[in-house]
Amino acid sequence: MRKVIVLKEAQKSDCLFLYELLSERKSYENISHKKLPTYVKHVKFVMSKPYSKWYIIYRATEKIGSVYITKQDEIGIHFKEKNITNKIRSKVLKMIIKKNPHDRYLININPSNTMMKKFLKNEGFELIQHTYEISKNTSSV
Q1: What residues pair up with 79 in beta bridges, in sequence order?
Q2: How far apart are CA 132 and CA 32, in angstroms?
Q3: Alpha carbons 34 and 16: distance in angstroms, whole number
Q4: What is the spatial distance between Cα 74 and Cα 108, in angstroms, rounded to a whole number?
Q5: CA distances (Å), 84 to each of 6, 12, 14, 65, 138, in order?
Q6: Which residues, including other chains, have CB under 8 Å from residue 103's CB and lie 6 or more apart?
Q7: pTM given for the model
């Protein structure tokens, strides 16, 4: 029997789960931070409601990940289980798009994340830019 996938809006009570999810990310998955924030900073971030919508992904009653959409129509999907299938990933992507209709959607990924590159291409997404960064710690300017 298949377990149903459900998206429920993230609540304050989900902060610990979201922090665990963040702390489990591999370096090739990160784009927004190089160092894990403290739990207190994370809770403050979650409670600031930084995204248009932020959902916890459930498979039956088990929390398996989160998905959000930003005010710039950027989608972020993260799963707790590393062996999540592309079928589930695709279903969640379609669910958030259906719940939040817009003209276009963006997904930013780390260029080293080859699995997501392949997945997004298979879902019909096209590469539109490469973004480069310099920080004051590594700047030679």
Answers
A1: 65
A2: 13
A3: 20
A4: 7
A5: 15, 25, 20, 10, 35
A6: 73
A7: 0.86
Q: What share of the chain is helix, strand, coil (3-state, %, to 5)?
A: 30, 20, 50
The amino acid that residue 81 corresponds to is E
Task: Look at residues 91, 28, 18 and name the one whose alpha carbon lies nearest to residue 51.
Answer: 18
Per-residue confidence of the chain (141 residues) as pLDDT tens digits?
A: 578 999 999 999 999 999 999 988 776 666 666 788 899 999 999 999 999 999 999 998 999 999 999 999 999 999 997 668 999 999 999 999 999 999 999 999 888 889 999 999 999 999 998 787 787 766 555
> Residue type for 111, please?
P
Q: Which residues of 29-50 are buried (b: 16+ CB within 10 A; e: fewer)?
A: ebeeeeeeeeeeebbeebeeee
Alpha-carbon distances, residue 67 vs 23, 78, 100 (angstroms): 16, 6, 12
CA distances from 76 to 68, 71, 127, 141 (A): 5, 12, 16, 32
Looking up tokens 């990310």, which residue turns up?
A: 25
